[in-house]
Design goal:
The structure is a single chain. The chain is an alpha/beta fold. It folds into three domains: 92 residues, Phosphotransferase system, lactose/cellobiose-type IIA subunit (Methane Monooxygenase Hydroxylase, Chain G, domain 1, Up-down Bundle); 177 residues, 3-Layer(aba) Sandwich (Rossmann fold); 81 residues, Helicase, Ruva Protein, domain 3 (Orthogonal Bundle), CATH 1.10.8. Helix content is 54%, strand content 7%. It is built from 14 helices and five strands. The chain has a five-stranded parallel sheet with strand order 2-3-4-1-5, with helices on both faces. The radius of gyration is 25 Å and the shape is globular. The two termini are 39 Å apart.
């Protein structure tokens, strides 16, 4: 990994030169250094295509190219040939509020009743966030500030997070872990510090703050996968999460993380997520309710048995069941267009339509990966 670290060091050095040139108003020189950073990261991706940070580097390259375009526009507007007296404020610092702070209209329209099943998970989240937010005086020993939702894709982690957002009147910082790391090379730890600083400022206004981090494993992966600045970023995140648990502080700031790969989390982060909640594929009763919910806007034949369908879809995720209903509906739509040119109304969806779909659509979650989730849950569960 020596060459990998050397490339990162060169990229870091050129990024610092680029930002120094930009801050000094020398946009032409800044563009030169930004291009150099992009070239180095591209070389790293070509040499190490399976490196755990390759996805992040691709996003960094995209961000750099976008910044170059912005600087080229500023050069044209100034007519200075690339040198200006005062550097313009970077785009990502111009907004009056953090870009990741959701406005009221941006909050997802999901309620607890929209989350089918997952009763243990819902209860744990309510006890950890909703109750303390409403009556903090009832919690002399404090309450959990770090909550981890883990499980296979498509099983409701995002739905649970969205539901709690609407259950309490809170500020929502919605963070994509990869974008924190990729925004500006070498500034990941400063991004983390800024997020928590702003969270504390908003919490002082009298409302809770939920920091929702998707793909939290990208920030908190095991030390064996760390390179360069990621070490500092991880330490900063640990420091900030520890700060939420300081004795005497009852801040209403919560870190709600989601991940499909909890085994990538390092032990120090596992400990800071006091609640670790498994979000498994839906059980039989939940599958029945999911088929009913997704079929509600469709025309369903009397031959359809949701109970039988639930039996036939053991191991399917919630999103798998949604796809099954879509495909069954598409069968009758396709038939309508092929036989009648799209005129008239489609016939009701029958049980045979669902069976035909299930013959060609298998669950997206393998039994082996489910065993891995269950093993991790038995070892680290905290609900």
């Amino acid at each position: 990994m020596w060459a990998s670290e050397e490339l990162r060091r060169l990229a870091q050095k050129n990024m610092e030169l680029a930002k120094r040139s930009e801050n000094g108003g020398n946009y032409k020189l800044a563009i030169k250094y930004y291009n150099k950073v992009a070239e180095i990261l591209k070389a790293h991706i070509d040499l190490y295509p399976r490196h755990p940070l390759s996805k992040t580097y691709r996003r960094q390259i995209a961000d750099i190219r976008e910044r170059i375009k912005q600087l080229e526009i500023l050069m044209l507007e100034s007519g200075s040939g690339g040198q200006v007296a005062v550097a313009a404020t970077p785009t990502h610092e111009r907004t009056s509020k953090p870009a990741y702070l959701l406005d009221e209209g941006e909050k997802p329209n999901v309620r607890w009743e929209d989350v089918v099943g997952l009763e243990d998970a819902k209860r744990s989240i309510i006890e950890s966030i909703v109750y303390p937010s409403r009556r903090p005086d009832l919690f002399p020993l404090g309450w959990p500030r770090g909550i981890l939702l883990f499980g296979p894709p498509g099983c409701g982690k995002t739905m649970l997070a969205a539901a709690v957002v609407n259950e309490i009147d809170a500020y929502i910082f919605h963070i994509d872990a990869a974008s924190i790391m990729s925004k500006w090379l070498g500034e990941s730890e400063r991004n983390i510090a800024a997020i928590f600083r702003e969270a504390r400022e908003y919490e002082r206004r009298g409302k809770p703050v939920i920091i929702l981090i998707d793909e939290v494993d990208a920030l908190a992966s095991t030390a064996s996968q760390e390179v360069g600045g990621e070490i500092r970023m991880r330490r900063q995140l640990l420091k900030e999460m520890d700060g939420l648990l300081e004795k005497g502080h009852k801040r209403k700031i919560y870190v709600l993380g989601t991940t499909n790969t909890p085994w990538r989390l390092d032990i120090p982060f596992i400990r800071r997520f006091q609640k670790r909640i498994y979000v498994p594929p839906p059980d039989y009763n939940a599958r029945v309710e999911l088929f009913k919910m997704y079929s509600r806007p469709l025309k369903i034949d009397a031959s359809v048995s949701f109970e039988k369908l639930a039996e036939m879809t053991r191991g399917y995720s919630g999103s798998d069941i949604l796809d099954v209903c879509r495909d069954a509906h598409m069968r009758v739509i396709r038939e309508l267009f092929e036989r009648r040119g799209g005129k008239g109304e489609p016939r009701p969806i029958t049980m045979d339509d669902f069976k035909a779909v299930l013959r060609s659509r298998k669950p997206s979650i393998s039994p082996d990966i489910l065993k891995r989730y269950e093993e991790w849950y038995r070892r680290y569960k905290a609900i």
